[in-house]
Write a structure and sequence with these properties.
Keywords: Membrane, Transmembrane, Transmembrane helix. The protein has about 375 residues and is α/β, with parallel strands linked by helices. It contains 14 helices and eight strands.
Length: about 375
C-alpha cells in the first residue's frame, strides 16, 4: 500500500493564501461594468466637447443685457439693424459718395480713408463717406445666416436708405477689401468705382496655382496657418480654436506685432493713439464678429474673383487694387497673380509697405483722387 504524501503548510503561508483569495474575491467586478464605465466616460467627454465648441449667445445692442445703442442705424429688410457713421461734406452737397468697408476686428470708427483724408481734398472734391459696422461688430446686429453675398446686399440697402443715388463708390481695407470682390460680383450695377486696399486672400479660391498658394500659405506664422485651416475645413471648431489655451491661436486676433513689418510698426503708435473705441468692436461677442469673419472669408466661396468680368466694359468706372510688397499678413504674390488674371484691374504695388499702409500720411488723398478720377 503506497504511503500518502505528507505536505506541511506553515501558518503564515495559509494566512497569505487566505488573504489573496479574499482580495481576489472582493475586487471582482460584475460582468459588463467596465463597458458601462467606458460608455459613461465617453458620454461625459462628448458632452464636455459639445459645450466647449458652442459659442455664447451674442449680446445684441439694445437687448436687455446688451450694450446701449448710440449710433445712427438703419433697419434692413430682414429686421436686422446696421449702424453707420458719416464723414466729409453733407450727403446732399456731395459730388462723390463713397461707402467704406472696415477690416477684421474693427468697426465704423476705423474708416482710415475717411479719418485721414485731408480737409482740403474733402472740400475741393466734395467727398462724402459713410462707414458702417459689419454684422456682429460695433452696433450692427449679428447675421448668423451671413454669406459671401449677404454683405453686398446690406451695402446696397444702406446706400438706398441713405439715398446715395443709383451709383456709388466702394473702398474696402483688409477683410473689408475682400468684401469688395463680392460687391463686384453681386452689385456691379450699383458701383461707380471700387478700391481694394490690401484685400485678404482666400487660399482656397479656385484658379490659384498650387505652388503659389503653398508659398504664400507658408509665409504665415504656423498658428495663423492653423487658424485659417480650421476656419475652412472645420468651421464648427472656429470658436473653440480661437478661445482654447492649449495651442497658440490666431496672431491677428491676439494683436501680435510679429505680423507687422518695419513700416507697419512705425505707423502703429499713430494708429493706437487714435483708437479709443477698442471695447466697442467686440462688445456683442467675438463669435458673430471675428469668428464669423474667418469662417466666411476662408470658407468655400460661390465664385472666384479670378472669374469676374469687367464691371465697367465701357470705361464708365474703374477698379483699383493697392498692396504693399512687404505685407506679412496678406502675401503679395497672390495679389500679383490676381492682377495678372484680371487685366482690367489697376494694380498699385507699394515698395517697402506693409499691411497698414493706408494709415501713411497722404495715402488716403492719393487713393481717393485716383478712385474718383480727379
Amino acid at each position: 500500500m503506497a504511503a500518502g504524501v505528507n505536505r506541511k503548510i506553515s501558518a503564515a503561508s495559509a494566512r497569505a493564501h487566505t488573504r489573496r483569495a479574499k482580495q481576489n474575491a472582493s475586487f471582482k467586478l460584475p460582468s459588463g461594468i467596465c463597458t458601462k464605465i467606458l460608455l459613461v466616460l465617453f458620454a461625459g467627454i462628448l458632452a464636455w466637447a459639445y459645450q466647449a465648441i458652442q459659442p455664447p449667445i451674442p449680446k445684441t445692442c439694445g437687448s436687455p443685457d446688451g450694450p446701449l445703442v448710440t449710433a445712427s442705424r438703419i433697419k434692413l429688410k430682414d429686421g436686422r439693424y446696421l449702424a453707420y457713421k458719416e464723414h466729409g461734406v453733407p450727403r446732399d452737397a456731395a459730388k462723390y459718395k463713397i461707402v467704406y468697408v472696415h477690416g477684421f476686428d474693427s468697426c465704423r470708427h476705423d474708416a482710415v480713408v475717411a479719418n485721414t483724408l485731408s480737409p482740403e481734398i474733402v472740400e475741393a472734391l466734395r467727398v462724402y463717406i459713410v462707414s458702417f459696422d459689419r454684422p456682429g461688430y460695433g452696433e450692427s446686429d449679428p447675421n448668423p445666416k451671413r454669406t459671401v453675398q449677404s454683405l453686398p446686399l446690406d451695402i446696397e440697402e444702406l446706400a438706398d436708405q441713405l439715398r446715395l443715388g443709383s451709383k456709388f463708390y466702394v473702398i474696402g481695407f483688409s477683410m473689408g477689401g475682400q468684401v469688395i470682390w463680392s460687391c463686384l460680383k453681386y452689385i456691379p450695377h450699383r458701383l461707380a468705382g471700387a478700391a481694394l486696399l490690401a484685400p485678404v486672400v482666400n487660399y482656397w479660391w479656385p484658379g490659384f496655382p498650387t505652388n503659389l498658394v503653398t508659398e504664400a500659405y507658408q509665409q504665415q506664422l504656423p498658428q495663423d496657418q492653423w487658424a485659417v485651416r480650421v476656419s475652412h475645413y472645420a468651421p464648427w471648431l472656429t470658436y473653440w480654436w480661437n478661445t482654447q489655451k492649449w495651442f497658440p491661436s490666431s496672431s491677428v486676433v491676439a494683436h501680435s506685432t510679429d505680423i507687422l513689418n518695419s513700416e507697419d510698426k512705425k505707423l502703429l503708435p499713430k494708429i493706437v493713439s487714435t483708437r479709443n473705441y477698442t471695447a466697442v468692436v467686440r462688445q456683442q461677442g467675438e463669435y458673430e464678429s471675428l469668428h464669423r469673419d474667418l469662417m466666411i472669408g476662408f470658407g468655400t466661396w460661390e465664385f472666384s474673383p479670378m472669374d469676374l468680368d469687367n464691371p465697367f466694359p465701357n470705361n464708365e468706372g474703374s477698379v483699383y487694387m493697392w498692396h504693399g510688397d512687404e505685407d506679412k499678413i496678406v502675401p503679395v504674390i497672390l495679389q500679383r497673380y490676381i492682377a495678372q488674371q484680371l487685366p482690367w484691374i489697376h494694380y498699385y504695388e507699394l515698395p517697402g509697405a506693409g499691411h497698414m499702409f493706408p494709415h501713411a500720411p497722404g495715402m488716403s488723398d492719393n487713393i481717393v483722387k485716383v478712385l474718383v478720377g480727379e
